[in-house]
Amino acid sequence: MQSVTEGGANDGYFAVAGNYGYESNGNMTTDPLKGTGVEHNYLNLPEQVQFGANDNQRYTYDAAGNKLVKVVDGSVSGNNTRLDYSGNFLYENGELKAIFTSAGRIIPFDNNGNIVYKFEYNLQDHFGNTQVVIHKGGSGLAEVIQERDYYPFGMEMSELSYEGLSG
Predict the structure, then answer these.
(1) What is the pTM of this model?
(2) How many CB atoms lie within 10 A of CB 104?
(3) Within 10 Å of residue 133's Cβ, how many Cβ atoms?
(4) CA torsion sign, 103 to 88 to 137 to 144?
(5) Would you say residue 60 lies in a domain?
(6) pLDDT tens-digit profile of 108-140?
(7) pLDDT of residue 155
(8) For 167, which of 15, 42, 126, 146 is 20 to 30 Å away at the CA?
(9) How far apart (Å, rounded) are the C-alpha atoms in residues 162 and 102?
(10) Full residue range of the structural domain in which residue 142 is found
């Protein structure tokens, strides 16, 4: 695909001028819609994604292709982060952010100096897509904190989806 022209309602795609760029392995290298450039490693995985002149994301993988590190650098220093992936553990700037399980994730948070773990459970459809995320609410009952509905072709039905505050 070199370009896309939209003639109808712009519900999910907004056409812009320009052509998509690809390298010899078929990996996209430029996306005019997002204004990005992508460099790939020898495993055909994205190694660097550039957004304009000063913003980029860099990725490091092991030899099997498992993501080890994601670094976000940009012109807004508050958005600069480093994510380290160590098995099922996710660290952000050296601090444990989540432990992923087959049923969902465990999120540590500080409760007046004590580290407390909140369990979030994913309810998935037959494709493995997460439809609903629940956790134990303040009353001790299950509480929906995120719900996603999708069209048959995969785009999210934003008018039917919900994301509450998880705190």
Answers:
(1) 0.75
(2) 19
(3) 20
(4) negative
(5) no
(6) 999 899 999 999 999 998 888 888 999 998 888
(7) 81
(8) 126
(9) 23
(10) 109-167
The strand pairing partners of 1, in sequence order, are none
User: Does position 167 have pLDDT exceeding 50, yes or no?
Assistant: no
Long-range contacts from 67-75, C-beta under 8 angstroms, 24+ separation: none
Average pLDDT over residues 40-63: 93
Say whether 77 sits in a helix, a strand or coil. Answer: helix
In a domain? residue 37:
no
CA dihedral sign of residues 134, 130, 58, 88: positive
For residue 18, give every residue at least 6 positions away whose Cβ sits within 8 Å of its Cβ, in sequence order, or none. Answer: 3, 30, 32
Paired residues of 92 in beta bridges = 83, 95
Give the Cα separation of 153 and 77 in Å (integer): 37
How many degrees, rounded to 5, is the angle at CA 84 between CA 83 and CA 89? Answer: 110
Instruction: Give the total number of structural domains in the chain.
Output: 1
Any residues with CB less than 8 A from the CB of 79 and at least 6 apart, and which? 72
Alpha-carbon distance of 49 to 54, in angstroms, equals 11
Q: Which residues contact 71 (CB under 8 A, 6 or more apart)?
A: 57, 58, 59, 81, 82, 83
DSSP tag of 79: G
